Protein backbone atom coordinates (compact mmCIF):
# COMPACT_ATOMS: atom_id res chain seq x y z
CA UNK A 1 0.00 0.00 0.00
CA UNK A 2 1.33 3.40 -0.97
CA UNK A 3 1.83 6.21 1.52
CA UNK A 4 -1.11 8.46 2.39
CA UNK A 5 -0.96 12.24 2.79
CA UNK A 6 -0.71 11.74 6.55
CA UNK A 7 2.18 9.30 6.04
CA UNK A 8 3.96 11.88 3.85
CA UNK A 9 3.52 14.52 6.55
CA UNK A 10 4.99 12.22 9.21
CA UNK A 11 7.95 11.31 7.01
CA UNK A 12 8.62 14.95 6.14
CA UNK A 13 8.45 15.98 9.80
CA UNK A 14 10.88 13.20 10.73
CA UNK A 15 13.29 14.45 8.07
CA UNK A 16 13.00 18.14 9.00
CA UNK A 17 13.01 18.11 12.81
CA UNK A 18 16.70 17.13 13.17
CA UNK A 19 17.54 20.32 11.27
CA UNK A 20 15.50 22.36 13.74
CA UNK A 21 17.64 20.91 16.54
CA UNK A 22 20.84 21.74 14.59
CA UNK A 23 19.68 25.33 14.04
CA UNK A 24 18.75 25.71 17.72
CA UNK A 25 22.11 24.31 18.86
CA UNK A 26 24.02 26.70 16.58
CA UNK A 27 21.93 29.70 17.65
CA UNK A 28 22.28 28.81 21.33
CA UNK A 29 26.07 28.76 21.00
CA UNK A 30 25.98 32.22 19.41
CA UNK A 31 23.70 33.56 22.13
CA UNK A 32 25.85 32.07 24.92
CA UNK A 33 28.91 33.95 23.68
CA UNK A 34 27.01 37.19 23.07
CA UNK A 35 26.78 40.19 25.41
CA UNK A 36 22.96 40.10 25.33
CA UNK A 37 21.31 40.96 28.63
CA UNK A 38 18.35 38.68 27.91
CA UNK A 39 20.41 35.63 27.01
CA UNK A 40 19.26 33.51 29.99
CA UNK A 41 15.62 33.89 28.99
CA UNK A 42 16.38 33.27 25.32
CA UNK A 43 18.45 30.18 26.10
CA UNK A 44 15.71 28.78 28.38
CA UNK A 45 13.12 29.18 25.62
CA UNK A 46 15.35 27.64 23.00
CA UNK A 47 16.31 24.75 25.27
CA UNK A 48 12.62 24.12 25.94
CA UNK A 49 11.95 24.03 22.21
CA UNK A 50 14.89 21.68 21.64
CA UNK A 51 13.59 19.26 24.28
CA UNK A 52 10.04 19.43 22.89
CA UNK A 53 11.45 18.69 19.43
CA UNK A 54 13.30 15.64 20.73
CA UNK A 55 10.11 14.39 22.37
CA UNK A 56 8.18 14.99 19.15
CA UNK A 57 10.78 13.01 17.21
CA UNK A 58 10.39 10.08 19.63
CA UNK A 59 6.64 10.15 19.12
CA UNK A 60 7.09 10.40 15.34
CA UNK A 61 9.39 7.37 15.31
CA UNK A 62 6.75 5.42 17.20
CA UNK A 63 3.98 6.55 14.82
CA UNK A 64 6.08 5.60 11.80
CA UNK A 65 6.82 2.19 13.28
CA UNK A 66 3.14 1.55 14.04
CA UNK A 67 2.22 2.51 10.46
CA UNK A 68 4.87 0.22 9.00
CA UNK A 69 7.08 3.04 7.69
CA UNK A 70 10.85 3.04 7.85
CA UNK A 71 13.25 5.66 6.55
CA UNK A 72 16.11 3.54 5.23
CA UNK A 73 18.50 6.10 3.75
CA UNK A 74 19.08 9.84 3.65
CA UNK A 75 21.35 11.50 1.12
CA UNK A 76 22.30 15.15 1.49
CA UNK A 77 22.85 16.77 -1.85
CA UNK A 78 23.81 20.32 -2.69
CA UNK A 79 20.26 21.55 -3.30
CA UNK A 80 18.09 18.91 -1.65
CA UNK A 81 17.71 16.08 0.82
CA UNK A 82 16.78 12.69 -0.67
CA UNK A 83 15.27 10.06 1.59
CA UNK A 84 14.45 6.47 0.68
CA UNK A 85 11.73 4.89 2.76
CA UNK A 86 9.60 1.75 2.90
CA UNK A 87 5.88 2.19 3.59
CA UNK A 88 4.06 -1.08 4.27
CA UNK A 89 6.30 -2.93 1.80
CA UNK A 90 6.27 -0.22 -0.87
CA UNK A 91 9.69 1.38 -1.58
CA UNK A 92 9.65 5.09 -2.41
CA UNK A 93 11.72 8.29 -2.23
CA UNK A 94 11.04 11.77 -0.89
CA UNK A 95 12.95 14.80 -2.15
CA UNK A 96 12.98 18.00 -0.09
CA UNK A 97 14.64 21.17 -1.31
CA UNK A 98 16.87 22.85 1.28
CA UNK A 99 14.99 26.10 0.77
CA UNK A 100 11.76 24.32 1.77
CA UNK A 101 13.39 22.69 4.80
CA UNK A 102 14.77 26.08 5.89
CA UNK A 103 11.36 27.75 5.55
CA UNK A 104 9.61 24.93 7.42
CA UNK A 105 12.18 24.99 10.24
CA UNK A 106 11.79 28.77 10.62
CA UNK A 107 8.00 28.43 10.64
CA UNK A 108 8.09 25.71 13.30
CA UNK A 109 10.46 27.77 15.46
CA UNK A 110 8.28 30.88 15.15
CA UNK A 111 5.15 28.95 16.11
CA UNK A 112 6.75 27.16 19.04
CA UNK A 113 8.53 30.25 20.37
CA UNK A 114 5.31 32.22 19.87
CA UNK A 115 7.05 34.89 17.80
CA UNK A 116 4.56 37.52 16.69
CA UNK A 117 4.47 41.14 15.65
CA UNK A 118 4.67 43.59 18.55
CA UNK A 119 1.30 44.78 19.80
CA UNK A 120 2.54 47.24 22.37
CA UNK A 121 3.24 46.76 26.03
CA UNK A 122 -0.05 48.06 27.42
CA UNK A 123 -1.34 45.55 29.91
CA UNK A 124 1.90 43.54 29.98
CA UNK A 125 3.83 45.62 32.45
CA UNK A 126 2.47 47.51 35.36
CA UNK A 127 3.64 51.07 35.45
CA UNK A 128 5.69 52.26 38.39
CA UNK A 129 3.31 55.17 38.97
CA UNK A 130 0.33 54.10 41.11
CA UNK A 131 -3.16 55.00 39.99
CA UNK A 132 -4.86 58.00 41.62
CA UNK A 133 -7.10 55.79 43.78
CA UNK A 134 -4.04 54.00 45.14
CA UNK A 135 -2.55 57.33 46.30
CA UNK A 136 -5.63 58.32 48.27
CA UNK A 137 -5.83 57.19 51.88
CA UNK A 138 -8.79 55.20 53.24
CA UNK A 139 -10.60 58.35 54.47
CA UNK A 140 -10.33 60.00 51.05
CA UNK A 141 -11.61 56.90 49.24
CA UNK A 142 -14.72 56.79 51.45
CA UNK A 143 -15.62 60.37 50.59
CA UNK A 144 -15.44 59.81 46.81
Q: Can you offer a commentary on this structure?
A:
- The protein has 144 residues and is α+β, with helices and mostly antiparallel strands.
- It has five helices and three strands, in the order ααβββααα.
- Strands 1-2-3 form a three-stranded antiparallel beta sheet.
- The chain is elongated, with a radius of gyration of 24 Å.
- The chain starts with a helix and ends with a helix.
What is the average per-residue confidence, as pLDDT, rounded to a whole number?
87
Instruction: Indicate the overall shape.
Output: elongated
Distance between the termini: 78 Å
Provide the succession of SSEs. Answer: HHEEEHHH
Q: What does the largest sheet look like? A: 3 strands, antiparallel
> Structural class, please?
alpha+beta
Question: What level of helicity do the residues show?
Answer: 55-70%
Number of helices: 5
How big a fraction of the residues is strand?
A: 15-25%
> How are strands sequenced across the largest beta sheet?
1-2-3
Radius of gyration: 24 Å
Number of strands: 3
Offer a quick outline of the entry.
The protein has 144 residues and is of the alpha+beta class. The protein is 56% helix and 17% strand.
SSE order and pairing:
Blueprint: H1 5-32, H2 39-66, E1 69-76, E2 80-87, E3 90-97, H3 98-112, H4 132-135, H5 138-142
Antiparallel strand pairs: 1-2, 2-3
